[in-house]
Design a protein that fits this description.
Strand order of the largest sheet: 2-1-5-4-3-8-9
Number of helices: 5
Distance between the termini: 82 Å
CATH superfamily: Glutaredoxin
Helix content: 25-40%
Strand content: 15-25%
CATH topology: Glutaredoxin
CATH architecture: 3-Layer(aba) Sandwich
Largest sheet: 7 strands, mixed
Radius of gyration: 28 Å
Number of strands: 9
Order of helices and strands: HEEEHEHEHEEEEH
CATH class: Alpha Beta
Shape: globular
Structural class: alpha+beta
Length: 198
Amino acid sequence: MRLLRTVRWAAWVAVAVSLLLAGGAWLLRDPAPAPAPAAIAIGGPFALTDHLGRAVSDQDYRGAYMLIYFGYINCPDICVPALDNMSAALDALGTAGDAIQPIFITVDPLRDTVEALAGYVPNFHPRLVGLTGTTRQTEAVAAAYSVFFEAEAHAGDDDYPVGHSGYVYLIGPDGEYLTVMSHAKAGAAMAAKIKEFL
């Protein structure tokens, strides 16, 4: 009986070894690496109108770094601090900041007209450009930068909020996306991050 058990045990060991050598070696190999997630493309062409009434596109800013923030004039919480942080970053960079074009793109084109932007953007930085457009143009540029925005139903009432994401984008002189920062990043910290790409 003991001999039979020994033979059975030896047989199972032999089967296991043969499976490992013949067809089970795959158990010991490194697992195949998981495919990398597809990168989200950020940035791209746009056609809008600046706060002086001029038709502009992304091509007009080639050769300069673009520091872009999406928001709206009547934003109650984050837009003013975001634009203040951008302005402080440009000031902190000194003459190096001359290579950067700060841009504010409205996500509320119905209210943020050329005239409204003309009275708004000078409150922040002398080189800040405000851009607006049609609803379709706004949707297109927001999609290019993966920006979320949604106006709450307002039924004719002009006092309505627009929910939107709050990021500051740095785009290179060739139009390529470089980095993104929180709207809450302080001016000095934002300047330090920008310096990495200058």
